[in-house]
Amino acid sequence: MQVTGKIVVVTGGAKGIGRALCDVFHRAGAAKVVVADIDPAGARAVAAKVDGAAFKCDVGKETDIRHVVEETERQFGPIALFCSNAGIGGGFDPLADNAGGTSDEPWSRSWAVHVMAHVYAARHLVPRMKARGEGYFLNTISAAGLLSQIGSPAYSTTKHAAVGFAESLAISHKAHGIRVSILCPQGVDTDMLRSIPKGPQSGDGDLTPEQVANDALQGIEQETFAILPHPQVLGYMRKKTENYDRWISGMAKIQARMREDYGKLRRPSPSLRAKRSNPLLGKLDCFVAFAPRNDGVGAVLTQLFCA
User: Of 148, 214, 225, 259, which one has the fewest beta carbons inside 10 Å?
Assistant: First the structure.
């Protein structure tokens, strides 16, 4: 697919990879780039730079996705490419005693943003695209959706689910002329990554959002399903599937080492451990866990967040 002359929507377009996608699609000749973001001021700023349009949109709400789809097509024309790019961190707790967590909140929000946002986009665009005989979805996911994410079962699980839905979307509607790509990078040099120390994932190379966006454009032009800006991810996937038991054992060793190293620094008192069951304090604890530090442990956590 060529984006020249096409209408493109990018959610989470106010910063990071989303902002870079808006820019690369504009430079590739898109007729209109629609920037949708929960931050309306940020969306307007990006839209102004790409001669686009902006909408406030919480992708976890179906009404917001429907509004963006309907208003974009009413004002500018048929959406040829919908980039479901918005994502969140959260639910990270390297010392959690139970992978199931203590609260539904991080699971519910991650499910809404990382899975249902893609479902809502398909729900409201597939009928339109089928009628036109063509259309394209680019779903920004993460290498975590193909591998894993130690420290956040909610993040890892919902990213895996996002891959599963994208596969179903591609399989179900290939005959209708609808194409799907998933964008699955590792470390990307965004504001989030710069706020914490670079970790071992930097050995694989932290890419710029612009590099990732250029890879996305190339993948769309070639109609590639799995776009891997870090090509080594393919090798990691092969090792995972070649010997799942060995892979799980290795990941478990990494988690054990991370818990040990982080625990030496934290050494929380029994009373503090008890307070961790409080959802609000849990969020605060995770923020502290990913705060900038120069002791080496922060680097490990950086790897776990980005890989």
Answer: 225
- Distance (Å, rounded) from C-alpha 74 to C-alpha 70? 6
For the beta carbon of residue 200, count every other beta carbon within 10 angstroms.
Answer: 15
Residue 116 near residue 60, CB atoms below 8 Å: yes
Name 185's Cβ contacts closer than 8 Å, sequence gap at least 6.
Answer: 17, 142, 143, 207, 212, 228, 229, 230
Average pLDDT, the chain: 84
182, 139 in Cβ contact below 8 A?
A: yes
Is-contact 57 65, C-beta < 8 A? yes
Strands 32-37 and 178-183: what pairing?
unpaired
C-alpha distance from residue 120 to each of 13, 57, 67, 69, 246 (Å): 17, 12, 11, 10, 37
Strand positions, DSSP E, 75-206: 79-84, 135-140, 178-183
Average pLDDT over residues 61-73: 98
DSSP codes of every residue in 206-230: PBPHHHHHHHHHHHHHHT-SEE-SS
Active-site amino acid positions: 155
Show the CA angle centred on residue 113, arms to residues 36 and 52, nearest 5°: 10
The verdict on domain 7-306 having CATH code 3.40.50.720 is yes
3-state secondary structure of 128: helix
* Phi and psi torsions of 246, nearest 5°: -65, -40
Q: What is the phi/psi pair of residue 16, to 5°?
A: 60, -140
Domain ranges of the chain: 7-306
Angle at 97 between CA 94 and CA 102, to 5 degrees: 95
Taking only the tens place, the pLDDT of each residue in 215-260 is 999 999 999 999 999 999 999 999 999 999 999 999 999 888 888 8
**Dihedral over Cα of 158, 162, 168, 171: its sign:** negative
In what helix (H) or strand (E) does residue 94 lie, and over which residues does it extend? Answer: none
